[in-house]
Amino acid sequence: MSREERPEQERGASGPLDGPRGKRLSRREAFRLAGAAGTGLALGAGGMGVAARGSRAEEASPDAEAVPFYGAHQAGIATPSQHRLHFTAFDVVTEDRDELRDLLREWSEAAALMCAGEPVGDVGGAGFSPYLPPDDTGEAIGHPASRLTITFGFGPTLFERDGEDRFGLAARRPKALAPIPPMPGDALRPELSGGDLCVQACADDPQVAFHAVRNLARIGRGVVEMRWSQMGFGRTSSTSRQQETGRNLFGFKDGTNNLKAEDERAMDRNVWVGLSEGPGWMEGGTYLVSRRIRMLIEVWDRSSLDDQEKTFGRHKVSGAPIGREGEFDAVDLEAEGEDGEPLVPENSHVRLGAEGGESILRRSYSYTDGIDRERGQLDAGLFFVCFQRDPGRQFVPMQRRMAENDALNEYISHTGSAVFALPPGAREGGYVGEGLFAGA
Amino acid sequence: MRSPVLEKFVLGVGAVLAVAVVAGCGQTAPQGSGGEAGETAAETTAETTAETTAATEVGSTPELEAASESYGEYVVDETEDLVDATDRFTGAVISGDVERAKRLYAPTRVHWERIEPVAASLGDLDPKIDAREGDVPEEEWGGFHRIEQALWEENTTEGQEEYARVLMADVEALRTEVEGLDLEPSDPVVGSIELLNEVSAGKITGEEERYSHTDLYSIAANIEGSEAAFRSLEPAVEGEDPELVQEIDDRFADLYATLEPYRDGDGWVPYTELDERERRELSQSVDALAEPLSRVGQVLQA
């Protein structure tokens, strides 16, 4: 039976991916078409919607909701932290600037679909060709959107690598996008650091976050290669007043004094790039710094409660600054104990963080990569992620103080480091990073 | 030897028949991989049968007819070359010429590797000809890799004469099977991608030619066989999706360029000379090609 003779419902399971002649379109073609029409992918816009992918209304819970992909800022920054992270850095392997630009467009379109709880194409139901792999890999079928956010960024090496202007973008590199300088005590591993591009996928369901990264990697095959990847769990920072402060793997509350997304003035002052500092294509964007911080958990677990609390400068269970009652009580750097020593020790984590007055939006996750074979210990720690207007003025001085003096250094080791420029969000029909290529 | 998990992609005479061939020919999971893999393969086969049966027959066009015909000729040619080369190789083994046998081993296998998906789907010849140690029970283990082990591990042909004779007979049997073969357009479609999956799944790690380290011969042959299958389809794809042809052309060129530095005279350097980074680069280049190549199946919907 030829296709023409087959009943309509039997072929090309999903209408949207069928072209005008009923011919199945590749993902690339489907995106092109949808982009041209400017309507096909109008998803995820306009407030919280309930996810579509196979979920029913009665299943909908706050954690199942869809977060709009399109907007003035990229989602996944001010969005209240989800429970899970799947972060991947990529290196660009093509030398063709158009291929890179096309990939960014495809990535945004696929991301908009996935964030709305939709597959990135046909999942291979009845009528799908037995001779083609399905467009979408399928493991998220039946999973709601799970507040999935996908956030894209550009590393310094995208603009220039070993002095080479790879894509004619060197002149457009933001001054603030500079590699994080070496810090005392760094134990950085190159294979866990850097990258030309980053994809941060956060969701309340780890399978949904994995699905996002996997499908983006698949779409990018031949244009980009995965460089390193980090899965995270148990958000350790609250980025919203709606959320309780999470605990890191040391058992302490982390991020009590974090910026809160509801505080728009503070966000504008500290996180979102303004028009004044330039470049124009970064207005409404921000800079992401990530640090893979290995925790020497076995050593920590042997240290006394007093030692643990003095290391952080907080009480373990309540999260209150030493000598205070409540978690959110102000940290009093002047307060002294009966012995005349500061209650919050000079080299405590909370003091060193607060001293410089810098503010950053932290959005970190705990991680484990199984066992450290060399030591036979848990390979676990904190995948630290923060956002700011200028890493050189915010993260770098803060981290330098800590790297030099923090009592916590006895128990941690920084093994990965990266910095990325996160452009502003895209409008429907556009794509994240469009401004970088426009008119250049 | 092919992975049982990949067995569902096996080729044969038409899509529906292909599955019947696998199910009926008694190819079982290697002992070493345990029952679970075998069950998975069986289940997958059953599911595939149902789905494939429900799917449609491939509508034929002159281009597709020509594709299966020209791919069929390629398979026959390579099989002929395999017979001749195996004759020389097994002759060297039987006459006790270790150096000559070593020299002929990899160039002989090239002809098998180029057409492996088709060859492996015929009868139960694949485990006899191409099983690696542990793929089949020790007492059943023969074929190329058994002799490879003796040649490189023990530097001898002693005790290999019988394996050589059986291998020759099995390759002759393969020729007989191939002569009666009537390929479908789906065969080059599946074959082109299957050959790259062979590289990704079993060869990048260096486990295929674990004694001789001649993996690059096998890898290059898989890629050449994949390209031959694609070229037979190219006129059909060109009409459907010329951009896809261009993309695949570019990626084949990239992949060959990645291999080029490892050329050594008429052959290839030992795979052990590639470090982790170089193997990864090769793997990524294969993945980059396999992705667009997996969309060639769209021509079968015409």
The major sheet of chain B is characterized as:
2 strands, antiparallel
Strand content of chain A: 15-25%
Number of strands of chain B: 2
CATH fourth-tier homologous superfamily of chain B: M75 peptidase, HXXE motif
Mean pLDDT of chain A equals: 86
Count of DSSP strands of chain A:
11
Strand order of the largest sheet of chain B: 1-2
Q: Characterize the overall form of chain B.
A: globular
In the CATH hierarchy, the architecture of chain B is Up-down Bundle
Instruction: Report how far apart the termini of chain B are.
Output: 33 Å
Domain Dyp-type peroxidase N-terminal (chain A): 74-233
Transmembrane segments (chain A): 30-52
Cofactor (chain A): heme b
Domain Dyp-type peroxidase C-terminal (chain A): 246-426
Protein model, in words:
The complex is a heterodimer of chains A (440) and B (302). Chain A is 21% helix and 18% strand. Chain A has ten helices and eleven strands. Chain A has helices at residues 27-37, 97-115, 156-159, 206-220, 264-270, 297-301, 305-312, 349-355, 395-405, 434-437; strands at residues 49-50, 65-66, 84-92, 149-154, 197-203, 224-235, 286-295, 361-362, 365-372, 377-388, 412-422. In chain A, strands 3, 4, 5, 6, 7, 8, 9, 10 and 11 form a nine-stranded antiparallel β-sheet that branches. A two-stranded antiparallel sheet of chain A has the order 1-2. In chain A, a hairpin with a 4-residue loop joins strand 9 (365-372) and strand 10. Residues 1-52 and 54-60 of chain A have low confidence and may be disordered. Chain B has a single domain, classed as A middle domain of Talin 1, CATH 1.20.1420. Chain B contains twelve helices and two strands. Chain B has helices spanning 15-24, 34-54, 62-94, 98-114, 116-120, 125-130, 144-153, 161-179, 186-203, 215-240, 242-259, 276-293; strands at 263-264, 267-268. Chain B has a two-stranded antiparallel ribbon with strand order 1-2. The longest helix of chain B has 33 residues, at 62-94. The radius of gyration of chain B is 19 Å and the shape is globular. At the A-B interface, loops of A face helix 2, helix 9 and helix 12 of B. Chain A: This is Deferrochelatase. Chain A: One of its GO terms (cellular component) is cell envelope. Chain A: The chain crosses the membrane at residues 30-52.
